[in-house]
Specification:
15 helices; Sig_transdc_resp-reg_C-effctor; single chain; Beta-Lactamase; alpha+beta; Arc Repressor Mutant, subunit A; WH-like_DNA-bd_sf; five-stranded antiparallel beta sheet; DNA-binding CsgD family transcriptional regulator; DNA-binding; Tscrpt_reg_LuxR_C
C-alpha cells in the first residue's frame, strides 16, 4: 500500500510547521507511524552542541516501560547506533544495513527491547544532519513479519520527507541559537500561538509558520498578494514596516523594533521585528532558500488580550495601583519614561516613582524583568 499524495502533503506541512512549533514534531512522528498501512514505532533523536539542544528526543509507539529500560541500560549499547557512521546525510538506510538480524538476535538489546515490541527489527530511517557539532536522525522500527510488504514504503516515506525535515531543523536551529538567542532570551518571545514570518527587505515572505499562514488567510492584521509580499492592513502600519525593512537593508546594525497595531475591529496585536544578516553566522540557517549574502527579517505577531482585563490582573497579582499598572503596560509597549509621562500627562518623576513601586511589588530588579512579566500576562492572559 502506497502513501497517498494528500498524506504526503499533510506530513510535509507538519514538518514545515515544526520549524516554529516544536510540538509538531510529536504529531509528525505519530502520523508517520500510521501512514504506510501498518504500525511503525518512530523516533527523532540526536544532539546539537551549538544550540545546547541535547538530547533531542521524540518517540511514538514504543512501550513507555521499555523506553525507561532502554534509557537505563541500553542507551550506550544500541547495536544500530554503533553503525550510524554508515548513514549518508539525506539518504534512507534500512535497519539491517546497520545491524543484521542474525547479529542483533545475539544481543541483550534484542531480548529486552526489540523482541518484547513484537520483534520490531525491521524498518530504518534517514540521517538528517551529522557534523562536528551535531547529529540528528529520524527513523522507525516495524515488525519483522511486515518487512517484505512495508519496509520499502517506509524507507521511501523517510527519504521523501527528509529534505523538508532538514530545512525545518535548520530554521529551528537559527531561531534557538546564536543571534536569535538574544532575541529569544532578552527580547521576549511572544509564546504559544505566535505568528512568525521570515521575509526579505522587499517584504517577500520566505517562510510562514502555521499561525502565520492562518493570519494570512484571514487577512488581518497582515495579508499577502499574489506576489507573496507581506502587507499590513492599515497604511500607517505598512509604512512603518516598509521603513524598518529599508533600514535593515541599508544599515550597518541589525534592527529590533517592538510595536502594537490595531485592526478594524479594535483588536490589538503585539509585533516584534528583528533583522538578521546571514553572513554574520558561521552556518547558513536557512540553507536551501536564502543565501548567506542576504539580509532578512524575522517578524512575530501575537494577538493581545483586553488591556483593561490585564491591568486588573496586574493589580490583583502584584498589588499594583491603577497608575502603576498603566505605567508598566506602557513600558512594555516600548515607551520611554518621558513618553509615558507625556502620554499620561504627569511628570517624569511621578512615572519613575510608579515604575520603582511596580518593580518592588513584582519582585523585579530591572525594568526588563518587569516588561517580561507584563508581556507574559498580556499575551497569555495571566498565569
Amino acid at each position: 500500500m502506497g502513501v497517498a499524495a494528500e498524506k504526503y502533503l499533510h506530513l510535509s506541512n507538519l514538518a514545515v510547521a515544526a520549524a516554529m512549533d516544536p510540538d509538531c514534531w510529536q504529531q509528525l512522528l505519530d502520523e508517520m507511524g500510521q501512514a504506510i498501512g501498518t504500525h511503525v514505532c518512530t523516533q527523532l533523536i540526536g544532539y546539537d552542541q551549538l544550540t545546547k539542544a541535547a538530547p533531542l528526543a521524540y518517540t511514538s509507539g514504543y512501550d513507555p516501560d521499555l523506553l525507561k529500560l532502554y534509557e537505563a541500560h541500553y542507551a550506550d549499547k544500541n547495536p544500530f547506533a554503533a553503525n550510524f557512521g554508515k548513514c549518508a546525510v539525506g539518504g534512507a538506510i534500512a535497519a539491517d544495513q546497520l545491524c543484521t538480524p542474525e547479529r542483533l538476535k545475539k544481543t541483550g538489546f534484542y531480548a529486552d527491547i526489540i523482541r518484547p515490541h513484537e520483534d520490531i527489527y525491521g524498518g530504518g530511517g534517514s540521517m538528517l544532519a551529522r557534523d562536528s557539532s551535531r547529529m540528528v536522525l529520524i527513523g522507525g522500527n516495524l515488525r519483522a513479519k511486515d518487512r517484505d510488504k512495508y519496509e520499502r514504503e517506509w524507507l521511501r516515506l523517510c527519504e521523501t520527507l527528509t529534505p523538508i525535515i532538514r530545512q525545518s531543523l535548520e530554521i529551528s536551529r537559527a531561531i534557538s541559537g546564536l543571534s536569535f538567542e538574544k532575541w529569544a532570551a532578552e527580547q521576549h518571545m511572544l509564546g504559544a500561538d505566535t505568528a512568525i514570518f521570515v521575509v526579505d527587505p522587499a517584504m517577500t515572505i520566505h517562510h510562514a509558520c502555521r499561525e502565520a499562514q492562518k493570519m494570512l488567510d484571514k487577512g488581518t492584521p497582515v495579508g499577502s498578494g499574489f506576489n507573496r509580499r507581506l502587507r499590513f492592513c492599515f497604511d500607517e502600519d505598512q509604512r512603518q514596516f516598509a521603513t524598518l525593512c529599508r533600514l535593515q537593508l541599508k544599515g550597518n546594525q541589525n534592527i529590533f523594533k517592538s510595536w502594537r497595531v490595531t485592526d478594524g475591529s479594535g483588536q490589538g496585536w503585539t509585533c516584534r521585528l528583528m533583522g538578521l544578516r546571514m553572513g554574520e553566522l558561521d552556518w547558513s540557517p536557512f540553507a536551501g532558500f536564502l543565501t548567506k549574502s542576504i539580509t532578512t527579517i524575522l517578524l512575530a505577531i501575537k494577538k493581545d488580550v483586553s488591556p483593561i482585563s490585564i491591568q486588573e490582573k496586574m493589580q490583583t497579582a502584584f498589588g499594583f495601583s491603577q497608575a502603576e499598572a498603566q505605567a508598566a503596560l506602557l513600558l512594555a509597549d516600548g515607551l520611554t519614561l518621558a513618553e509615558i509621562a507625556r502620554t499620561r500627562q504627569v511628570s517624569i518623576y511621578t512615572v519613575r516613582n510608579q515604575i520603582k513601586a511596580a518593580l518592588s511589588k513584582s519582585g523585579c530588579r530591572r525594568q526588563s524583568e518587569l516588561v517580561r512579566k507584563t508581556e507574559q500576562m498580556r499575551l497569555q492572559g495571566g498565569w
